[in-house]
Design brief:
It is a single chain. Helices cover 27% and strands 29% of the residues. The protein has six helices and twelve strands. A six-stranded antiparallel beta barrel has the order 7-8-9-12-11-10. A five-stranded parallel β-sheet has the order 2-1-3-4-5, sandwiched between helices. Strand 11 and strand 12 form a beta hairpin. The longest helix is centred in the middle third of the chain and has 15 residues. The protein is elongated, with a radius of gyration of 19 Å.
């Protein structure tokens, strides 16, 4: 993908990077990246949100991709229609990379939400706001998303790999389930996957490798829930003991 090639090029030149603008340096304040080619929009967003966030902005989608990978903001506000690379490409790229896919992306666009909201959510966006922005709703959305994104940080690196699993357990409504799913990312002792069963943090499941003859991998517990109660709902699982017959040693 051309976008990813540009990102890698930018990373190789990382010593040249600097955030184009910062609203204020605020220590432990959540960091927010605004990507929009319209200076007036970036100015308004900085003015309205800088009391609660350390804000950086960029007019270039290409530059912003490199900055995200280098500095990993807590959330991203993203325009859709920009020169060179569209917001659709940026959103899909960041949502597909294991080391950036947990950063919440909120679309802020002059385009109709009725037309684009569902598509954006399907490629990884966590919210959609039309211009002019309802700032009360946007601030609430960001607070909710950033709060969720800090729950249960991952303790080991992951690779993006599709592994078919069979998961068994008791859901949050005390119902038994036995479901087959595919992982999004995996680590030596953990995995991320979609699951339709409602589960709470710390819920336990039995995990089986579903391909090549079912084999028991181990017991795993939920460490975080991503995008709860949506069609993109994902669960992070950590094995409670060293897994057997696992894909990564």
């Amino acid at each position: 993908m051309k976008v990813l090639q540009q990102v890698r090029k930018k990373l190789r030149q990382s010593q040249r990077f600097a955030w184009p603008r910062t609203c204020l340096i605020a220590g432990d304040m959540p960091r927010l990246l605004v990507i929009d080619d319209d200076e007036s929009v970036r100015r308004v967003l900085r003015f309205r949100l800088c009391d609660a966030y350390e804000i950086f902005d960029s007019s270039s989608a290409e530059e912003a991709l490199g900055l995200v990978l280098l500095h990993k903001p807590d959330a991203i506000l993203l325009d859709l229609m920009m020169p060179m690379y569209s917001g659709f490409e940026v959103c899909q790229t960041l949502s597909s990379l294991s080391f950036t896919q947990q950063i919440p992306i909120v679309i802020v666009s002059g385009q109709s939400g009725e037309r684009y909201r569902e598509f954006c959510e399907n490629i990884g966006a966590r919210g959609y706001f039309e211009k002019p922005v309802d700032f009360d709703a946007l601030e609430k959305k960001l607070a909710d998303l950033i709060g969720l994104s800090h729950l249960g940080p991952r303790s080991e690196p992951r690779v993006r790999l599709r592994v078919m699993l069979e998961l068994k357990g008791i859901d949050s409504k005390q119902g038994e389930f036995d479901l087959t799913t595919a992982t999004d990312t995996i680590g030596p002792n953990a995995f991320l996957c979609a699951l339709t069963a409602p589960l709470d943090v710390d819920a336990e499941v039995q995990a089986y490798l579903a391909e090549g003859g079912k084999s028991f991998a181990g017991k795993a517990r939920v460490t975080r829930v991503d995008r709860p109660d949506t069609i993109q709902q994902r669960y992070d699982f950590q094995f409670t003991e060293k897994p057997s017959n696992w894909v990564l040693e």
